[in-house]
Queue: 2 jobs
Job 1
Amino acid sequence: MKRTLVALTTVLALAACDGEPSQPPLLLPDGSVEPEPEPEPEQQMEPEPDSEPEPAPDPEPDPEPAEPFEMPEFPGMVVAVDLNPDPDIVEVELIAGGNTLEIGGMRVPVRVYDNVLPGPLIQAKVGDEVIVRFQNKLSEPTTIHWHGLRVSDEMDGNPRIVDPVQASETFEYRFVVPEAGSFWYHPHVRANEQIEQGLYGPLVVHDPADPPVDAERYFVIDDILLDNNGRPPAYLASHPEVMHGRHGNVLLANGQVPPMAIETAEGRVERWRLVNTANARTFTLALSGARFKVIGTDGGRIAEPYEAQVLRMAVGERFDLEVTFDEPGDAVVEALVPTLNDAGDVVTARIPMYEATIAGTGEAPRAIEWPAVEVPERAVDREEEMTFNAFNGPAGVRWVINGLDDPQEPIYTFDEGETVRFSIRNMQGQEHPFHLHGQWFRVLSHPDPYPVPGLKDSVLVPGNATVEIEAYFDNPGRWMAHCHILEHAELGMMSEIVVRPAE
Ligand code: C2O
Ligand code: CU
């Protein structure tokens, strides 16, 4: 554990190897103390004890007698309690506030949703209306962005459209979830600080047509930067942070110092969803000890699932895995982190993030048949080029899209329904995870050796490289398009694209 933390500090040195002074290595106390167990969901969001029984099932015979969909459990996670008896409405309360949590043996000041890290998992089924009664108990304004959900722009957490929720105020987010998939939520005001401090949570939209699995899990992967006293060093204060985004020296697996332990059994098939919620770090994950099939990405299930041993996840990206346990033993998700050894050579540290113990049962796993995913062909209406660059301004480094530093006017206006092919050219060596709100795109070409299938809202644009995407502007409104390295976004790499509604 100590070795892990110390090893990670060298990543900072590595990140600065373009000839810049690095931050001093941060030393952390030996974190041999186990993190506190997270409170049970019941303690977090217990609905008012009500004397009235649940409303009786409708006596009318249902015209289409569909099985009511039952939300899965997500063992070990805090799940937001649905306070609305209507089976097609999910209504939850969410409170953002400050707290202190024990992380790696230190008392760390955090800002979190509902006092847990990550925030409670919100789940719904496709087509449901979701109502989030949000209370801001922070000392500053905030918003919630539903990363990946194609909701209306007024519910998207864009502070330029709807004023942020002020300290001690409330706001009701209300939207229909149009597609199934793995999503997450986080603020869009001073995001480099608020997300780093712990304001993020997972969100799942289920497709009732998906075959049942033996367990659903959501792995929320993060890193945070802490000093010797468990405090966050000043934001945007170091040159490496300005250049590469804030890389943490402590990895977090669902809010805890890893590895997180999981119990499972031979013969089971589980669905694991993963999201990278770091400010800047791209994670490379090695999967071993079970059969891992990628069945979904940002926009839900993909047409051609594939087996994978390594995943590369930029900030904001999601993967859905079908995990099959053929044999007893251990299944492990490891983060592969470039670091320096004592001799000063670059080596890869393997840091176990999730460790599943597979109990022997002698049972053979079943094969899961996933319903087909249709990929409609679309003709390209327009071709555009987008560039990512940097320049030195009077106040320091600025990051720019199409040469524009934090433009307040939209950088493009399209008509609803347009299909636009973009060549995204990165003119500098630093990578940029590009994120588009409110729409899907597909990746047509990518320089890296990792598949990037399916509908996407986030994609890594590596240094000095070009990525081609095809974007489907089907959701009218004003949409943010930005780098998800939150420091880059804060330093200019934030723009908007307008989609004019069809008449
Ligand atoms: Cu995950 Cu604009 O955000
Ligand atoms: Cu960037």
Job 2
Amino acid sequence: MATQLLKTVSDTPAVPADDRIRLAGLGRKEIAAHLTALEDDLKIEPKKVRMRTKQIFHWIYNYGVTEWDAMTNIAKPLREKLAQHFTLARPEIVERLISTDGTRKYLIRMAPGIEVESVFIPDVSKTGALCVSSQVGCTLTCNFCHTGTQRLVRNLTSQEIVLQVLIARDDLGEWPTTQENRRLTNIVFMGMGEPLYNTDAVGDSLDTICDGEGLGIGRRRITVSTSGVVPEIGPMGERTKAMLAISLHAANDDLRTQIMPINKKYPLAELMQACRDYPGLNNSRRITFEYVMLKGVNDSPKHAKQLIKLLRGIPAKVNLIPFNPWPGTDYVCSDWETIETFADMVNAAGYASPIRTPRGRDIFAACGQLKSESEKLRASVKRKAALANGTPADTDA
Ligand code: SAH
Ligand code: SF4
């Protein structure tokens, strides 16, 4: 794997501290509520709030504007008033890394101490997918996952989820939405955190991301991945109409409980039933089962047979993920031959079973590597800077 970084920059100027309300990332209802709350000062008649909301929404999400003055169908005096109260600025991008394979990782500071990562992966589904985070940290402790070693800081808001998409669109230069040959076409909730422990924000964020007058990403191009929060799977499907991915990783309860403690609470029988009941499931809307290949743990032909049996009758495809190592883990990635044998068996049973090429490993952007590695990277950058300045490095990052 090449380790050369093409670029390590944080070239987006920090947004100065600002008391204004950030409208970028908000949904229609929230924008309307803000306009209504200030209607006396803005001098927007109540019956015009909806129309103004529609205009602003379109400018933010179709054109990606960040300046009020760009909104040419809104008269100048109102634009000036809006600019006094509201900002369209993005949060600060603390770090933006581009891998030799084209993967882009953004470390975004949503608020003091609230930093999240999102990763743009080119060449997925013919175009490209943005992997977004739903929480800072995770309450779950899957023991092969680096994010799982970090406590939950907090859930992200719907706005903070949508902002990850806006930032990637900005960076890829893909405004307006009508632009042809966009690369950011798909969204996967496979970044930090468990999206099904933050279903309200995830659901609301989809309403904005999928809105046809805005970002316009189809619901079937959005995949929500869960470690198996069974009671939330059906309601999430009803609410979002998104595609479902299950982090399965083991096809028997003993092993799964050992590597994913959530399996104790929601064992495989319940999880598979929730999958069978997933709204809209059919052969063109299959569930993706993610299966991380851990050497000597879950990768033998016996395990492949268990998996095939478990999936029987479910429209499914299996994503085999080579384990991405991180400092301190005892797990090792399965040998390539072992992975191929496993894939061949699952494939022969009638399930597509692509082996996911690790992307962005050189920038710590691969599955399960998010957040802590970037903290480490930033710590080393800090140390270098401190050495250059002759000052002691703070080591809290
Ligand atoms: N919490 C959700 C969303 C995160 S998705 C979930 O678990 O589904 C991130 C995916 O990467 C999950 O399938 C996760 O199990 C997998 N993963 C975690 N650590 C990994 C690692 N070190 N190597 C490869 N895949 C990993
Ligand atoms: Fe959390 Fe998913 Fe990692 Fe498990 S795999 S610790 S649920 S982020």
